Amino acid sequence: MCIFCGKDPKDKNLEHVIPEWLISLTGNPNRIADFSCNLDKDRKFAFDQFRFPSCKECNEKFSDIESNTRETVLAILDGKKVEELESLLLWFDKVRIGLWLAFYTLDKNYWGIEPKFYITERLSRSDRGLFIYKSSSPKGINFFGVSNNPLFNLMPSCFGLRINEYYFLNFSTDYLFSKRLGLPHPGKMFVLDNKKNKVEVNLNKGKEKVLLPVIKRNFTSSCIELYQPIINKNLATTDRQEFYSSAYVKKYFDERKCAGKIVIVKDNNFFFEGDKDFSLSVKEQKSTKAFIDCFDKEIRSINNKILSNLPSLSKLSKNERNEVREVRKLFRELNKK
Ligand SMILES: [Zn+2]
Q: Rounded to two decimals, what is the model's pTM?
């Protein structure tokens, strides 16, 4: 199956979940990497082998995103001016879902789940954010909140990635922070049909200003935060137009694209992408071990936020409601481990 579209691959190609440019940037491309997790203790193979089938066409669609992201990552690592951020956020969506599908394949479907989505349909689907940190570390790459957090297998909404000295915490879920960005947001969301993923959204007007913190960080200190609001087109919304027609919303949100301008938060200030030149250089954190501990806790804390932001179950039948409640309870418990 193609990792992008989920169909039988046309003109079969192999897609590196972690692209070759990133493997080379972080060490010897032929090195052996450890993909073990608690399900399978010994799972070591060459980084270069971490690749999965895809259609030639699907794969090629992403080549621009890969080259733009490479530029951006190099600029971040060198503390230089960054040209544009949307590719980077898109790329993190791609890697997060790619990792999820990869572990699903490697774990031989240990959790007995049916993948409901592939990369393409999960890209740019919901509000998404990225926190960027720096902490003295040797060259290398690591994932966080993936193999050491069983929740990721069931809800791949948040993960961490280290690229040399930089640590990235990426997350995405419906309407996680539209309200804090002053945009229209759900007063309430209801699950209407759990199996078909049908959700009703009742919109409220926004406050038309950015409120800090957009998301409260509980465990980590200095970092740069990026936020992009996105409407999930699959959700049934009450007539959207009236909420998206004010001057503020029009300025910061492209209703046709269902996506807003990226907000950058740095040193307790915010600005919108395009308003000024900026670098993504971050204050370096001292102790790596203590930092990693906090980083891991932050991932779990964001997962909890995502779980508490899920739509209400009050419109489901009693039986269905109890069923979903149990699943959510399990999610919260898995995230604690
Ligand atoms: Zn495909």
A: 0.93
How many A from CA of 337 to the centre of ligand 1? 35
Q: Mean pLDDT throughout 204-223?
A: 94
249 Cα to the center of ligand 1, angstroms: 35
d(CA 181, CA 228): 9
* 191: in domain: yes
**Residues 6+ positions from 165 with CB-CB distance below 8 Å:** 77, 134, 135, 136, 137, 284
How far does the centroid of ligand 1 lie from the alpha carbon of residue 84, in Å? 27
Residue 3 is assigned to a structural domain of this protein = no
Mean pLDDT of the residues in the chain = 88
Domain assignment of residue 6, yes or no: no
How far does residue 118's CA lie from ligand 1's centre (Å)? 9
> Which structural domain, as residue segments, surrounds residue 162?
13-336
Q: What is the 86 CA–ligand 1 centroid distance (Å)?
A: 22
**d(CA 116, ligand 1 centre) in Å:** 15
* Residue 37 clears pLDDT 60, i.e. is over it: no
Structural domains in the chain (count): 1
CA distances to 56, 86, 205, 233, 280 from 258, rounded to whole Å, are 28, 14, 16, 7, 26
Give dist(CA 36, CA 241) in Å, integer.
48
